[in-house]
Design goal:
It is built from 7 helices and 26 strands. By secondary structure, it is of the alpha+beta class. Among the domains are: 152 residues, Jelly Rolls (Sandwich), CATH 2.60.120; 169 residues, Galactose-binding lectin (Jelly Rolls, Sandwich).
Length: 474
Amino acid sequence: MKKKLFSALIAVAMLLTMVPFTAVQAAEATPVVRPQADVERNFCGADNMAYAMNAEDIVGTHFSIAGDATFVGIGCPSWSDNVGSLTVSLYTFDTDYNTSVSKDPIATNEFVDFQDNGFLGFEFAESDPLTAGEYVLEVTDAYDDSGSGVGIWAQLPYEGQHFYENGEYNPGLSIRMAVVLTTPLEVPYGTLSGSTSDGEDGEIDYIPYLDCLMRFSDDDAEYYYTIDGSMYIDNLEITDEGYLQVDVGVGNDPQFYINLPSWVDGPTRDDYPVMLIRLKRSAGAPTSGEFFFNTTEFPGPSAGGSLTVQYEDTEEWQNAIVNFKTNKNFTGSLLSLRYDIVGAATEPCTFLIDYILFFSSPEAAAAFKHEDLETLLANQPTPEPATPTPEATATPTKAATAMPKATASAAPSAGAEEQEGGLSTGEIAAIVVCAVVVVGGIIVIIAVVNKRKKNGGGSGDSSDASGENEEKKE
């Protein structure tokens, strides 16, 4: 009996070893770079910016696919030279982002000297696809000894992704991604689980930074912009209605510069980092542009310091919104902007800009209504000065007096020497001198009279003596 039981157990064990464990085995992934022309950007938000990476930077995305996939990849720029390297790793999502990347990856590969703007990722066989579910793609070990740089394309937010920088969630971005499903779906993404811990919870402040409002109808409006250094801008002027008119010529990256008011503190990463620009575009004008920022800590314009701005395809007035906080290099106070008003203009077009305003959050900027601006300005509290301003008092008028004649000796300061209700030192000195002269004259007269009495001589002797004295004088 025991032998039969033992034989049965052996047979079961042999059968189990023959059963494939596909439920726990990861699909086999093949690293690949697909040219951007061959890939549909179907798993990310709208264009935003090229995101330059350094060796210590870690960028990743937690994403969810609603169906099985034969390709997942990330769009990566090498700034036109096809030089540099990045490591891309694919993980199964577990609990949260940081827990996921602490486990062994499904696949990892270092991509060296990849094609500029190519999609770096992994292919899977249709017979063994990447199954529907949640995953993490992480990009690390950026390197480029040529100096032009490598990185990823950062997009605006997307419901199927959560974007991470060095393990921290950034709700303002997604990664440019492409996903090829075995069966196309109208909605390619699934539900994202886990906590993001973005620290963005709290009451929204809807009041904009009114002190930094830049209306092109202001008296100071000509300070806000300059034609110096512009490219492919045919005309830049303020209209009679108080709008900045930008006539765009044909060319790549038509651009001009905007200066923020120097008399107020510029927006920062923590205070009013979201910009709203109210504008109108002509028919057929491109629907995106780019802002390069220049701050007290990040000198611009330079690579890694820009964000894309999207326009609605309408000829009506609209509010275009840019969240500078989504760019890791936006530090310090904002000083100025280079505004590449469109990416490329194949024919002339015109923009009108009404004003630029800054908000504390994207939600506050999105909720803003143009018709509320005047009410906000009217209700704006007047800031109290740091110290109370004293009441003005009448300045006493000094009566006009005759100027004294100049003398050889230096005149002392009357203010320092004048005594209250009395004579000045100069006046006292003059009286003393006069008294001395008078007394001296009296003494001389008395001496002469006494001498004559003592001599007692006649007129002749006196004449002779007088004559001798005159001769001595001569």
